[in-house]
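Illustration 12: enoyl-[acyl-carrier-protein] reductase.
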Amino acid sequence: MKAVQFDAFGPAHEAACCADVPDPGAPADDEVVVEVIAFPINPADLLTIEGKYAARPPLPYTPGAEAVGQISQTGAGVDGLASGDHVMLLSRENWAQKRKVKAAEVLKIQTQPDRLLQYAMLKVNPATAALMLREYVELESGDWLIQDAANSAVGHCVIRLARKAGIRTVNVVRRESLVAPLKASGADVVLVDLDGLSGQVSEATGSGPRLAIDAVAGDTSLRLAECLAEGGVLVNYGMLSGEPCKMMPDWLVFRRLSLTGFWLARTLGQMPRAGIESLYAELAGHVRDGTLAVGIEATYDIADIKGALAHAGQQGREGKILVLPNGQV
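Figure caption equivalent — predicted structure in token form:
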């Protein structure tokens, strides 16, 4: 069977390749075999291949934080799962045609044929958006938040989930061309990141947002923090700028602002199984009712993983890059 591997850290489209690897074989009593239907390429995957993520894995390594698949075999001791079930893979190393994992490392999901690829993107971005919206500030209907990278997959999820909850969003982007599409997606206010941002935000929101969601860091963190209401929280979940987060110490002291970080893997690792199941059942429901729909720019065969990775690393994309390791759905 085929899997994506890399044996040295470096630019993703150069370091990773499609390799022939042994078939995983029959499952043990507590395992299942999953035929992978689709997996997305996320920024965390690119950082993993580059050796810039949380911890460097042992090499050679198969990346892949998320995927959707269909069970083809179950172990004799597995209950509640059967061949043919669609599942989301909770563990990593998912960029392969097949996965053999513990039954506890998959989550059965109710899917729809016309939205199957959306479930491949359920684990990371929708969950990141949902948890950042609820874990740091008790936002109520009518409250404001501000976010950068608003055209990203997480950004779109924040907009849609916030709108469903009655929370209003200020969305900061780098290009004027993104304003109209984001407004059409449900964004309340869309601003191009220029000097004078805090004045525009104050004029739009009145008292200012209570929550800022930051994927960029660097000077952008500072500009978002300047926009916050007293006692507001800036949550950073990315480093698109490659620079440290910035915050004025007098804002921490006199305006009671706070700066914290969000990492999905740690948050999920601290949640009980029931909490994880509840979270993803809720998010899967949002996919079914159309609240969540992440844009897809292109799909690739696993044999062209280098092309897929190069595409995923390009600026200005209008959607996610997905790989279909067992052919078109």
